[in-house]
């Protein structure tokens, strides 16, 4: 992948997110306001309510940012393929994040980046990740928890899909280990890490 438009998507999808090593994940509007005034371009929206989505999307676009929406955490919106279609057509985010393969596939059909989140709790979960990745081919895989550099390295060797690391990443060392093992970026809600890795 590179900085050109990837076939089948509506937004540029560089593997390094324009050099962002951190994808800041926001839970509160106050944190969103902080990021809109920052040098970050790509922002992840976590907990949100369906009534806020359109105003948040408009605000993000006004600041020329790209929004990745975690659709599993939208309160008041049924988590099915019709809901994903609605989001892609009306909200028009840069991408969606979901644990559901069908949500990722629906997003891709609507030319929105599809990021599949996987909780790697054991070997069975890892095998399932490999199987689903070959079937759905998401644009990115988010690995949870992200503090497993040896697993990230293994996945990078077996899959031709860029990996994001998220969950339980608390320090600069955690970030560097994830990136050094092959993750293209780290998702985190820790503001101290946002500040430490803010793009120039």
TrEMBL record:
Pfam families for the chain: G3P_antiterm
**InterPro entries linked:** Aldolase_TIM, GlpP
Q: Which domain of life is it from?
A: Bacteria
Keyword annotations of the record: Glycerol metabolism, RNA-binding, Transcription, Transcription regulation
Q: Which residues form a coiled coil?
A: none
- Please give the function described in this protein's UniProt entry: Regulates expression of the glpD operon. In the presence of glycerol 3-phosphate (G3P) causes antitermination of transcription of glpD at the inverted repeat of the leader region to enhance its transcription. Binds and stabilizes glpD leader mRNA.
Q: What is this protein called?
A: Glycerol uptake operon antiterminator regulatory protein
- What is the organism of origin for this protein? Paenibacillus ehimensis
């Amino acid at each position: 992948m590179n900085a050109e438009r990837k076939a089948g998507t509506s937004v540029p999808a560089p593997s390094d997110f324009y050099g962002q090593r951190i994808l800041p994940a926001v839970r509160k509007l106050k944190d969103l306001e902080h990021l809109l005034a920052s040098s970050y371009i790509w922002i992840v929206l976590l907990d949100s309510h369906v009534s806020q989505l359109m105003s948040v999307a408009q605000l993000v676009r006004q600041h020329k940012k790209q929004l990745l929406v975690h659709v599993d955490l939208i309160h008041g919106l049924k988590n099915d393929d019709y809901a994903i279609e609605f989001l892609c057509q009306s909200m028009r985010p840069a991408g969606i994040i979901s644990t559901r393969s069908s949500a990722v596939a629906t997003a891709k059909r609507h030319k929105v980046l599809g990021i599949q989140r996987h909780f790697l709790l054991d070997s069975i979960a890892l095998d399932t990740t490999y199987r689903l990745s070959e079937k759905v081919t998401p644009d990115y895989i988010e690995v949870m928890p992200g503090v497993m550099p040896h697993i990230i390295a293994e996945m990078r060797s077996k899959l031709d899909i860029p990996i994001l690391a998220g969950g339980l990443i608390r320090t600069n060392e955690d970030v560097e280990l994830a990136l050094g093992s092959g993750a293209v970026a780290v998702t985190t809600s820790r503001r101290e890490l946002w500040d430490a890795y803010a793009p120039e």
